[in-house]
């Protein structure tokens, strides 16, 4: 019998959830008081909840369902693989067909000489791999003191001890004595919030040059790598000024620092190319992948490394690996997902048709009195909420207005997230023009309702 088929009514599910289920990034008691929404099914870009509501998913789950929900081919690929070989490891002189085929395919898709894959189960553990991998690389090259990794404030690189340490989220560092030693931070290229009177171009250069200053401060012979998302996702879809990445690339080359591009969100079409590194024009030595690799249908992640890095690593035994590194079912599902992305030309459609249309609509929200800037790259976008666009002012209690907007979105059956006072979307790449219209209509309605409340609460004045 399928115990999930006949589930109890919503209130009972919520009660069981509150009694036994601890949610990620959640204040449990507050959630119990409110009761979580129970998602029961999904198709395309649409979610359905236990009350029968239809919700447009502006976040592709958690930035991951790139090909949209309800693709039977992925379920069938999983079932086939489960029947054939549900599990085997790749540790002790063995391998299997799905891991071989997926590694080969990723080497083909990844830019430049990124030709070697180390598998993980998600983005956090892949970044843990990266910490050990780049440090091992330098140790093997006879420079064991090169163990410092430079990251950025407000970056997100995961929730494991390594991932959260690499990330620049102070709220995460505050729990569990993080970061681990050997991680240094520079500021993010967030011109809207931190650019002051400088132009975006000058600010981009200034923030990139913080990397050079930090390398000099730490000592060039102590720095192993710089890690960054091509476009920050969880930090609020922060699109860096055009001047930023070329300067970062120059500095990494000048000091022979490995560049790790965390492509967990940007990878697999999100920015309109296979990888965000291509969109921002960089040549990383390592890229972190997860999420869109399987369109979230099954957990899988990994690190794709260059010939240069792999060449050194291959000279030793890398004492690292997870039970589920290269899990055959996950690899089979990922392969099927990549086949669909490629054969249905989903990324071409994003680049040439749907993303340009979404850009037009999204930038149209600039006429709304709550909106300061609208940023978009491919299918990831954000708006900054402000009481005064001209001065780029922040609301007095950061996050309050963001929450008001997010709650209105929730009520209007659109998933659009808030990060502080930025609203973000990252819809499935398969979203159609008609669905973009629905998304924008609901977003605008939610902004209108939020604006009324903001005025009523005295959080800003008209005009
Ligand atoms: N790197 C990046 C850039 C990510 O966005 C991870 C690593 C970690 O991946 P896993 O698979 O271990 O979760 C992520 C994940 C949010 C949110 O609130 C974003 C992520 C995860 C959870 C919440 O936007 N990104």
For the structure shown, list the relevant keywords.
463 residues; alpha/beta; Aspartate Aminotransferase, domain 1; binds 3-[O-phosphonopyridoxyl]--amino-benzoic acid
- Average pLDDT over all residues: 97
Looking at CATH, the homologous superfamily of the largest domain is Type I PLP-dependent aspartate aminotransferase-like (Major domain)
Q: Strand share of the residues?
A: 15-25%
Name the strands of the widest sheet in spatial order: 4-10-9-8-7-5-6
What structural class should be given to the helix and strand makeup? alpha/beta
Sheet having the most strands: 7 strands, mixed
CATH class of the largest domain: Alpha Beta
Radius of gyration: 22 Å
N/C terminus separation: 61 Å
The low-confidence runs, each spanning 5 or more residues with pLDDT under 50, are none
Strand count = 15
Quickly count the helices.
17
The name of the CATH topology of the largest domain is Aspartate Aminotransferase, domain 2
The residue fraction in helices comes out at: 40-55%
Describe the structure.
The chain is α/β, with parallel strands linked by helices. It has two domains: 146 residues, Alpha-Beta Complex (Aspartate Aminotransferase, domain 1); 271 residues, 3-Layer(aba) Sandwich (Aspartate Aminotransferase, domain 2), CATH 3.40.640. 42% of the residues lie in helices and 16% in strands. The chain has 17 helices and 15 strands. It has a seven-stranded mixed sheet, with helices on both faces. A four-stranded mixed sheet has the order 1-2-3-13. It has a four-stranded antiparallel sheet with strand order 11-12-15-14, with helices on one face. α11 links the parallel β7 and β8. It starts with 9 loop residues before the first helix and ends in a 7-residue tail after the last helix. Bound molecules: 3-[O-phosphonopyridoxyl]--amino-benzoic acid. 3-[O-phosphonopyridoxyl]--amino-benzoic acid (PXG) binds next to α6.
